[in-house]
Amino acid sequence: MMIISTMEPQVSNGPTSNTSNGPSSNNRNCPSPMQTGATTDDSKTNLIVNYLPQNMTQEEFRSLFGSIGEIESCKLVRDKITGQSLGYGFVNYID
Fold this sequence. Notes:
mainly beta; Alpha-Beta Plaits; 4-stranded antiparallel sheet; 4 strands; 9% helix; disordered N terminus; mRNA binding; RRM_dom; RNA-binding
């Protein structure tokens, strides 16, 4: 006997970067790369981090990645309206 399954297409009504409630950041403890004058030379020390928990705080984000090295800047991207993490962020380490 052969079982054949089909996958239903998934439709997302979630926010995108083109909506009014798109990404924002809470940078109380970590200035953004733009605020620190980041350039393309920072590519060796700049990380994008995906699949972060939606309930992660800026402080937890900084603490987690600060244990690896000294952070120049970091940004946990959040929904502008809800303030909830969008599950990704950026960390720039001091070279």
